[in-house]
Amino acid sequence: MTNPQLAVDALPPSLKDQDGPVFREPWEATAFALTVKLHETGLFAWSEWAETLSGKITEAQANGDPDLGDTYYQHWLAALEALVLRKTDLTLDQLLKRKTAWERAAERAPHGEPILLPEDEIA
């Protein structure tokens, strides 16, 4: 089984169809693809990913998330960020600055063009 198939298999039934994952927003597809790519590069084992995602979902439910499926990718992203922080030398401050820089770059990019992050914004 390929790594992307592991990711698809892990999705709740409401977030996939016969063709694969279903995304409500483009950022969900990006988070999914980033997770698969980081796993493929060896940043984390798939079991580690599943455990982290499960923990984030459990934490959200304990804090009142009704778990209707509409917040699934928010938990996915929280798990991905947690793993990146745990497995790399990035700090939370650096991660937040990088997220802000990407948001600004995305706002500047013409529709349909690549989003480019200038070197001076990568710090």
Report on the architecture of this protein.
The protein has a domain at 29-107. The protein has 5 helices and 2 strands. It has helices at 3-10, 26-40, 46-62, 72-87, 92-108; strands spanning 16-17, 20-21. The protein has a two-stranded antiparallel sheet with strand order 1-2. Helix 2 (26-40) runs parallel beside helix 4 (72-87) and helix 3 packs across helix 4. The longest helix has 17 residues, at 46-62. The mean pLDDT is 84.
Secondary-structure blueprint of this entry?
Elements lengths: L2 H8 L5 E2 L2 E2 L4 H15 L5 H17 L9 H16 L4 H17 L15
Antiparallel strand pairs: 1-2
Strand ordering within the main sheet: 1-2
Give the % helix: 55-70%
Mean pLDDT: 84
Looking at the structure, what is the overall shape?
globular
Order of helices and strands: HEEHHHH
Rg:
15 Å
Please report the total strand number as a whole number.
2
Structural class by SSE content = mainly alpha
Ranges with pLDDT <50 over ≥5 residues?
A: none
Discrete helix count: 5
Q: What's the N-to-C terminus distance?
A: 38 Å
Largest sheet: 2 strands, antiparallel
Beta-strand level of the residues, as a percent range?
A: under 5%
